[in-house]
Amino acid sequence: MMHSGRFAGAGPLHGPGRLVLTIRQLRGVSHMRKSQFSSWVLACCLLPAMALAAPRTWRDNSGKFTLEAELVEADDEQVVLKTAQGRTVKVPRARLSEADRRHLETLDASTSDGPQADAEINAMLAQVCQQTKVPALTAAIVNSDGLVAFGVAGVRKRGTRSPATQRDLWHLGSDTKAMTAALVASLVEQGQLGWDTTLGEIFADDGIDIHPDLQGATVAQLLSHRAGLPANLELKEYLGDDVVALRRRALSELAKAPQSPPGETFSYSNLGYIIVGAIIEKRTGKSWEENIQKVVFAPLEMRSAGFGGLGTVGKVDQPWPHADDGKPVAGNGPKVDNPPVMGPAGRVHCSIQDWSRFIADVLRGVAGGEALLQPASYQRLTTPAGGADYALGWIVTERGWAGGQVLQHSGSNTMNYATVWIAPKRDLAFLACCNQGGDVAAAACDAAVTALISHPLAKER
């Protein structure tokens, strides 16, 4: 699979700075078998009907039993499910599969205390969806205290009546990179890495063949796309779920001569972030996925955050991916995304509420407040090398409405799109996501952000 990064040239409001990562999809859809719950079912009873979630195939923790049902309600001990035949089933939460328990955690997180979708923002987004013909949008205003207001509009899948909801998940694409950079900053603070630690130093005793011209490439150069590496791997050669082994195998790319001397030229590289993932795994002994969950997601209470494509295979229970022509792609689910090896470069998904938690932390950090990392780390993450405009996971440019500097990034796996604009001097940020890829989705997200910038709730403090 080929990958490319490009500067789109303009963004809210005008001027250079928006970097869009476009990625062709890898289609891989698995099918669940259906059977009865059998002994998994604790009891059956009729309960008063509540607002139901979309139907889902639920599994027990042995993987032997499944049930097609809607979620009626859930607490810490059990869930109540309702089948298409109207039968209501109580199931101990502990008896659910890991995937189903994580799904419930996502719902818990998205329905916890906090602002509800704003009617005015909903209406604005509905208008943008209608004008740009994208299936769905969500967008948010954030400050250093957290989520200020958000909205959602449109449908999860074109051609259906399933509405996008305020508790849906959205694919962030390359906006994952800022999270990977924050994870590296944590390791730097702990003394496990240095920004200027070189590839030669990291893999000195590892038997990794590194081209002489890449021996001196640093961690910071990898994160700022200045290590001279190509844009992408040949992903068809790196399929599978053993992410640690696959990222270690990707280190073989370091034997090739760089495209430019490290530190000299900006060249957007997903491969560079995959290499960073391998470095994190070598220094910690744990996968990038485990590390980012422990170091970033858990402390920020980003309980909906996960990896890969969205939804239950064949079910319209999350935003369905759409190609740049606006048509739904053939399938959905966890495998409809770039392969797992790409994790550090762009496979995170989460709710708009949880993405807001990460962005609010960045606002606190760059202001020198209490945050996930030390103030010096945020300064390093958001300060480009001399003459450049890409720092470590962030584009750094200026906008008049922001009163000066903005931090920006966009990402797409060609089937989804996400963008964020942070204005540190105003203590404000604006986020938007769409379940479609391509230029039309980029324009829709930019239109949403532009509208939010002038929203009455987007007030300086």
In short:
The protein is an alpha+beta fold. It has twelve helices and 16 strands.
What fraction of residues sit in β-strands? 15-25%
What's the total number of strands? Answer: 16
The overall number of domains is: 2
Structural class by SSE content: alpha+beta
Strand order of the largest sheet: 9-8-16-15-14-13
Report the CATH C-level class of the largest domain: Alpha Beta
In CATH, the homologous superfamily of the largest domain goes by the name DD-peptidase/beta-lactamase superfamily
Q: Biggest sheet: strands, sense, closure? A: 6 strands, antiparallel
What's the number of helices?
12
Report on this structure.
There is one protein chain. The protein has 461 residues and is α+β, with helices and mostly antiparallel strands. Helices cover 27% and strands 20% of the residues. It has twelve helices and 16 strands. The strands form four sheets. It has a six-stranded antiparallel β-sheet. A five-stranded antiparallel β-sheet has the order 3-7-6-5-4, with helices on one face. It has a three-stranded antiparallel β-sheet with strand order 10-12-11. A hairpin with a 4-residue loop joins strand 13 and strand 14. Helix 2 runs antiparallel to helix 12, helix 3 runs parallel beside helix 7 and helix 3 crosses helix 8. The longest helix has 16 residues. The chain is globular and about 65 Å long. It starts with a strand and ends in an 8-residue tail after the last helix.
Q: Layout of helices and strands, plus pairs?
A:
Elements: E1 3-7, E2 19-23, E3 43-44, E4 56-59, E5 66-74, E6 78-83, E7 88-92, H1 98-110, H2 119-132, E8 136-143, E9 146-154, E10 169-171, H3 176-189, H4 199-202, H5 219-223, H6 243-250, H7 270-284, H8 288-297, E11 306-307, H9 343-346, E12 348-351, H10 352-366, H11 375-381, E13 395-399, E14 404-412, E15 417-423, E16 428-434, H12 438-453
Antiparallel strand pairs: 1-2, 3-7, 4-5, 5-6, 6-7, 8-9, 8-16, 10-12, 11-12, 13-14, 14-15, 15-16
